[in-house]
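Extended Data, panel c. Modelled sequence:
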Amino acid sequence: MLTGKTAVLAVTGSIAAYKIANLARMLKKLNCNVHVLMTQNATNFIHPITLETLTQNKVLIDTFDRNFQYSVEHVALAKQADVVMIAPASANVIGKIACGIADDMLTTTVMACPCKKIVSPAMNHNMFHNPIVQDNIEKLRRFGYEIVAPDRGMLANGDIGDGRMPEESVLLDYILREIACEKDLTGKRVLVTSGATREPLDPVRFITNHSSGKMGAAVAKAAMLRGAQVTLVAAHMDVAPPPFVRVVPVGTAQEMFEAVTDLASAADIVIKAAAVADYTPVTTADQKMKKSDGDLTIELKRTPDILKYLGEHKQPGQFLCGFSMETQNVIENSRKKLASKHADMICANSLRTEGAGFGTDTNVITLITPDSDTELPLMSKEEAAHRILDAILSRMD
């Protein structure tokens, strides 16, 4: 995912420095070229050899160290960098950078980097809330630095407060958002529905389906990584929503219908990936039930047809994409859906195809538009999400 990308990790003197070893490992697994800068104080918390072993690059500490190739001096490294993350960022280094002080290899290189710079403060609760530190953080924001909010929890001295550096996965998400994809969806507003709605029969039971929400979550994440402003209307999902997207939680089909109809008019691209239950009880079972030959029967009615409503109320220039899960006549049935719902594209797949359908991490999709059918081979849902967005963009241009 990060082949050809260079990330610079700038490590300062904080106990949280130990987390950077795992972050470096995670980046390398994604084929990222990782360089590490350390302050002298940082070497008291984690040894440079650890990070050199993980990154296969020399850790730079001393501005005047000549024991490395000339092409890796601070200005050259600054030119290579696609992103710089200062983590953990001590109050001292935050203050120096905010005031333009460059007196070591780390601050000198950061000052020379024209790329995006992300700062993850890590320090004692009281130090973090010191007005001088807060003023320096705000100054960095004004200069275009992105600040990762610290977590709240037990700190190194046993106090409870906010000042902890977030987990490595969170820091990785910030880096991925910046450099994983080209930003070809910048300026686009994308609305995605995902998950399985649940129609309550009584306080215990409900009607639902087997949707895991993985496909919708993958589409939302891919759109976010490509620069879009993403809103995810999420019913029940087996996966966590992706970071950096607005999440609107819903339960029933009616709740999803109301959320989508409220939000759709502001979206440039609407992708309905949720699996909506087809029926809902007319009333709850304890209010209205009929017994026939000793069996309990419940009166049902159809839930709102969200895709059809979206197609009938599509905004000028808006692109509408739906999903079609079939067991037979996949292309024929999906083409009928494309026409009857007034959609621009249908992503069709079959429950009978191995690797496709509910709950899997892969999918086999055919992209159906008014003038073409494009079959995609078996691939991960993350890859499929990007192929879907590629197809949408090609038809919007």
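The mean pLDDT is 91. This feature is highlighted in the accompanying rendering.
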